[in-house]
Records
---
Amino acid sequence: MDGNGRWAKERGLPRTAGHKRGVERVEEIIRAAAEVGVKVLTVFAFSSENWTRPKKEVNMLMSLLDNFLEKRIAELHKNNIRIRVIGRDKPIPDYILNKIDSAEKKTENNTGLTFVLALNYGGRAEIIDAARRFAEAVASGKESPEMLNEDKFEKYLYTAGLPDPDLLIRTSGEMRISNFLLWQLSYAEFYFIKKYWPDFGKKDLQTAIEEYDRRERRFGGINAVKKNS
Ligand code: IPE
Ligand code: MG
């Protein structure tokens, strides 16, 4: 979800106005994704590098998140949506971590769309954390190095149990991955759109999925692999 700041600046508004509008878009896109049958929707809400932004902006983002957790979970739960948060806990304030915990627990048995919120997330940090946890399991005798393979390693990632993304969408015209889901995106289709996130709507999601449908995926082989319908 990129371009909130530029969206606001172009309108002579403070960056925070872009973030507010951005949250509304998240709500719309969750609904739209569930409607078209997306099984897992992951949004990059806050990166491990975003803490370097001005304190005022960071605080505002935390308060938007707090508000989202406070006001929106009940509705998501009603719509059978499961919530999962990926990223490092520290230094997210405890009162937010508690709300995340209760949102995940409340919705864990829901069978509709899984909404994954990447928060204080960094792809390299995730891989390091997984490697560390695996090493600890080896040290305590629960795992052995010879048993390590891709399937096993995945179980140590924040995204354990979730499928790899089929499609990555980045808004605002930037064409880079910015430390997002480095492991999981290995064979994802990439889709870049110039629109800023606060302008990205249901139609845009549909267009992206239609473009995805036209792509041929071969996963390193020579034959097209059938896509999920
Ligand atoms: C994305 O918009 C939202 C977050 C990272 C929280 P930006 O805040 O990155 O907006 P630009 O890139 O400055 O326009
Ligand atoms: Mg940005």
---
Amino acid sequence: MAMAGEAHSRTVAPNGTIGILGGGQLGRMLSLAAARLGLKTHIFAPEERNPAYDVASSRTIAPYTDEKALKAFAEAVDVITYEFENVPVETVEILTGLGARVSPGARALAVAQDRIIEKSFARSIGARTAPYFAVDDLSSLEAGLKEIGRPAILKTRRLGYDGKGQTVISADARNLGLTWEEATRKAWEEIGARPAILEGFVEFECEISVIGARAADGAIELYDPPENRHRGGILRTSIVPADVEDETVDEARAITGKILSELDYVGVVGVEFFVLKDGSVMVNEFAPRVHNSGHWTIDACGVSQFEQHIRAIAGWPLGDPARHSDAVMENLIGDEADKWRDCARTRQLCVHLYGKREARAGRKMGHVTQLKRRS
Ligand code: AMP
């Protein structure tokens, strides 16, 4: 029976199609989750080959700015989302201009794509961040170092990921046999002499993240935060529950909820936090998409972050984010994925491989999640 009402008319029913911009492992896991709900996925990406095509119902291979291809894509799907935050905002604007529904919207994408706008947004909702300074050239970098002090981290304003486009400016250049001026110039060149943000180096106790979801009607669900350990700027391990105080969890969850509501967000977000000695948190950054530190939810929760995202954008009720198990998720990076057979042999280890053909250094090839049932 047809029902009146905006919320109902925006629902994508089983057999409907979710359009996904981007075809990496996140698109692959979104497609798998959608399939479980009886929904189809259509991937739009420029690559000839990628992990998501193998499991999606259809694909469009075209540049993100190909208006003709975007129009045909918009006509072929019921709702559109993206699986990486470097999709051009222009692409989302073209699609919405064509009358397509894109979730999360262009504003969330624009805020998350620019580290300076992201930090000032976080502060505008009352969250703390590392001290920061906008850097456009060598002289503003020098001014920033005077204000913020060393050590500091210089990061490109845009298009950074997995520790790429960032470098630490140490407190003692002499250890490297450089003058301060030389060390400053080296850092500027290392990030490609591009518009950047200089951040104070935060002496955190640990890093946690909150994976949160918001539905179109404003309902919010939040997963338990994992503790995340990085090496070389790349996430290696997420451990849930994180060994932090309840007050820390409450603060991180409250900030995540605020980010979701302030952006009128629909879908899943991943918010990364530094936990300080006193248990308070600072926002590091957020990703307007499903997040690597939420991969454990596939095996440790009834409804994973991927299913939750599909539910949110398809206008379904959000699922219960409760955890039935404790979990340790480890990324398989580069040739670590060669040990897939040993992983498959290990009881209680859930193995996820992304079907990438080439195991280049630093490339996320898969992940494993070790479960421990909660007593
Ligand atoms: P990002 O790409 O900003 O998430 O940075 C990657 C990793 O570098 C973070 O997860 C931290 O481990 C570290 N990092 C980034 N920014 C800072 C900072 N301001 N102070 C200390 N460590 C940082």
